[in-house]
Amino acid sequence: MPRPFELEYRVFEDAAALSHAAAQHFVDCAKAAVAQRGKARVAISGGSTPKSTFALLADPAQPYRAQMPWEKLEIYWVDERCVPPEDADSNYRMTRKTLLDKVPIPASQVFRMEGERDPEEAAARYESVIRGQFRLEGAQGPVFDMLALGMGDDGHTASLFPHTEAIHELGRIVVANHVPQKQTWRITLTWPVIVEARDLFFLIAGKDKADPLQRVLEGPYDPETLPSQLIQPRSGKLLMLLDKTAAANLPAPGPDGVGKMEIAR
């Protein structure tokens, strides 16, 4: 059943400004989690906007690197393509080359999805890893301190694509998802896990996202066609960091660049 939540969207002039805002948000969330719980368990996504954000976080010339509690982070992935870790399409490879190889995160605190394995096996193994790290039993699911999502121009998020089986999964933490429209398999966290994150936010940039974003937020509830509509945070609050072109069809934000909506379907 859909649940109401409060959406805050922050609109930035361009993709560069958005990446800086995202980098600062990563730092703020990580520091808050470490202060409260002694560590920050972070689930990240691939894509061009996260890549730019990771580059900023790793850059010693930027303020973010010195602020981040690197040794207290645990890094997980929201989803992965079914390719080896050195493949150009690998989300892990992008993150490693852009961020992980350049900052002092202990290797033992980085938990990748094994995209080179059989998809079902890789999903089962990753669920086992998460259960072990979070010390979960039975039907209990993980609560990530921070979880970053993107959104495709088809309304998908994570690897929850329109009209695919993973949309309907309620009991698993991680699943293999066949994506016929891309003729491929993906590995993804399930949406019931995603919505439990303490700090859940989207990074969305580009004019090709303006129409689907408007339909996700203001259109009829149809998660089979627009899986991003499944992301209704348990906390009751969702943040979207947007560039101007992605936000073009939404109500104009205030003078501070911040807009708010009550989403109740």
Describe this structure in words.
With 265 residues, the chain is of the alpha/beta class. It has a single domain (7-254), classed as 3-Layer(aba) Sandwich (Rossmann fold). Helices cover 28% and strands 21% of the residues. The strands form 2 sheets. It has a 7-stranded mixed β-sheet with strand order 3-2-5-8-9-1-10, with helices on one face. The chain has a 3-stranded antiparallel β-sheet with strand order 4-7-6. Strand 6 (174-179) and strand 7 (184-189) form a beta hairpin.
- The tally of domains stands at 1
- Per the principal axes of the C-alpha atoms, what is the gross shape? globular
- What is the CATH C-level name? Alpha Beta
Number of strands: 10
Strand order of the largest sheet: 3-2-5-8-9-1-10
Structural classification: alpha/beta
Low-confidence stretches: none
Brief rundown of the structure:
It holds the Pfam family Glucosamine_iso. This protein has 265 residues and is of the alpha/beta class. It has one domain: Rossmann fold (3-Layer(aba) Sandwich).
Task: Please describe the topology of this protein.
Elements lengths: L4 E8 L2 H23 L2 E5 L3 H11 L5 H4 L5 E5 L1 E3 L9 H8 L20 H16 L11 E4 L24 E6 L4 E6 L1 H4 L4 E6 L5 H9 L18 E7 L14 E6 L2
InterPro entries: 6-phosphogluconolactonase_DevB, 6PGL, Glc/Gal-6P_isomerase, NagB/RpiA_transferase-like
Keywords: Hydrolase
Family: Belongs to the glucosamine/galactosamine-6-phosphate isomerase family. 6-phosphogluconolactonase subfamily.
